[in-house]
Design goal:
single chain, 347 residues, alpha/beta, TIM Barrel, eight-stranded parallel sheet, three-stranded antiparallel sheet, globular
Length: 347
């Protein structure tokens, strides 16, 4: 298993929409962690180019993350919202697509990588079997015990446990507004529940920005920590300047559907606050708000663009990715040794 071969139990979160680059993934791999490429929003052809570029930078194992396609949303659900936005902002076509799922799967069967992970849903047993047949592990992002059991039954090798603290989109299999009334599980709670429910390894994700937090999830039973926000300020990341600057502030985060139609955590801004009742319609709203988000980035307007970040974003350092991995690893080791020492002294 790939996790057993890593020099350090640190996995790069696959941050779609810009931050994910071959340079960032390769740097994490070279430092002993597992780098990931985000395939979300990319055509299969571009993903192929990025896989090739990553292989030119590292010979170590790396992964690719795919967005599992959602069902089309009824037009009546989102059209009033788009009409409202169009009175103030430039908007695009509210279209549905599968994010090139079939073509990407075919590409990864023809040109295998060590790990394929999914977000927003679980591939079928037949799809997972295709990846297993070419030597790839299948990791599935889950947010509940029910999702975890479904993923294991389908053949998942590893579960990525995403706590509510995580930045970016919630990896839930279904984005049901009815679930908004149910408390989303925090990371430590989720890891404990999954450890009791399933036997496959768990990678913990959500709000992990320091080595001490890495130590915490390892102590709770996770096999590794998946980290995203902490890497946003690395020079290898393709993070937009607007976001690089914003995450250094103590701005609180919140969950919103305002930008994409799917719940996601980002820095609270005017757009999110003014559109608290945006409907669940992904990716239709994602495409519709594309022009307004692009305009905001060009204008440097942080109040009208999605600033995805986890709850501990202000702790993200400005370091090269390899140095960050080594720092997190050393701090995690020290924290675990200190905790063990304190425990021994107690007895």
């Amino acid at each position: 298993m790939v996790l057993d071969e890593l020099g350090t139990p640190i996995v790069l979160a696959p941050m779609a929409g810009g931050p994910s680059t071959p340079e960032l993934a390769a740097a994490v791999c070279e430092a002993g962690g597992l780098g990931f490429l985000a395939a979300g929003y990319l055509p299969a052809s571009e993903l192929g180019v990025r896989i090739k570029a990553t292989r030119a930078l590292t010979t170590r194992a790396f992964g690719v993350n795919l967005f599992y396609p959602s069902e089309p949303s009824p037009t009546a659900r989102f059209s009033p919202y788009i009409e409202e936005l169009s009175r103030e902002f430039p908007v695009g076509d509210a279209k549905h697509d599968t994010d090139d799922w079939d073509a990407k799967l075919d590409l990864l069967v023809a040109d295998p990588v060590a790990v394929v992970s999914s977000t927003f849903g679980c591939p079928s047993a037949a799809e997972i079997a295709r990846l297993h047949a070419v030597g790839s592990e299948m990791w599935v992002t889950v947010t509940t015990v029910a999702e975890a059991r479904q993923a294991v039954e389908a053949g998942a090798d590893v579960l990525v446990a995403q706590g509510t603290e995580a930045g970016g989109h919630r990896g839930t299999f279904a984005d049901d507004p009815a679930d908004d009334l149910v408390d989303a599980l925090g990371l430590l709670t989720l890891v404990q529940l999954l450890r009791a429910a399933v036997s496959v390894p768990i990678v913990a994700a959500g709000g992990i920005t320091t080595g001490q937090a890495v130590a915490g999830v390892l102590a709770a039973g996770a096999a590794a920590a998946q980290i995203g926000t902490a890497f946003l300020r690395c020079p290898e990341a393709g993070t937009a300047p607007l976001i690089r600057a914003a995450i250094t502030e103590d701005t609180p985060t919140m969950l919103t559907r305002a930008f994409t139609g799917r719940r996601a955590r980002g820095l609270r801004n005017r757009f999110m606050v003014e559109h608290p009742d945006a409907p669940a319609a992904y990716p239709e709203i994602h495409y519709a708000t594309g022009p307004l988000r692009a305009a905001a980035r060009t204008e440097g307007n942080a109040d009208a663009v999605n600033l995805w970040a986890g709850q501990a974003h202000s702790l993200a350092p400005e370091l090269p990715a390899g140095e960050l991995v080594r720092t997190l690893s050393a701090d995690a080791k020290n924290a675990l040794e200190r905790a063990l020492s304190l425990r021994i002294q107690t007895y």
